[in-house]
Fold this sequence. Notes:
By secondary structure, the chain is of the alpha+beta class. Helix content is 30%, strand content 36%. It has 4 helices and 7 strands. The chain starts with a strand and ends with a strand.
Amino acid sequence: MIKVRHIKSDDAEKYMKLYSKLDEETIFRLYEPKERNISLSEQIKEIENMINNDDSTIIVAEESGELVGYLGAFGKSQNRVKHIVTVGIAILQSHVGKGIGTMLFKELEVWAKRHNKHRLELTVMENNPGAYALYRKMGFEVEGVKKDSLLVNGEYINDIYMSKLI
């Protein structure tokens, strides 16, 4: 059974394991495999800072004690953009299509409303139709395209900018 909850500092090692595996199994990530350089103590500190920050959160999906996906919502403290969070989501390929993305986004909206967030925004690689379909299903709309935004395996990829007002 999948449990969706907000991250805790003692999740740091499992979270690092999750995103390392995600970086290896899909090209739809900003980081390439083994490109991240962060120690466990630094990861714990980042998670604790996020827990103590009303502008950002990480929501994790857990199955049998292992993290299988996450959604990060990253806000800013400046008054003019305090209502905005930038969203990043990733789910292990073995768990795609099981409703986890929907569960993560639903929990995000609960958190966002509780923290007076009004605008959710994200980008999706143009060649990632599964993620694009999830975002559309969750109410995100296309705002524009950033051409040749990413270089993946020697090929330029467009990024689609999407947002949802809540």
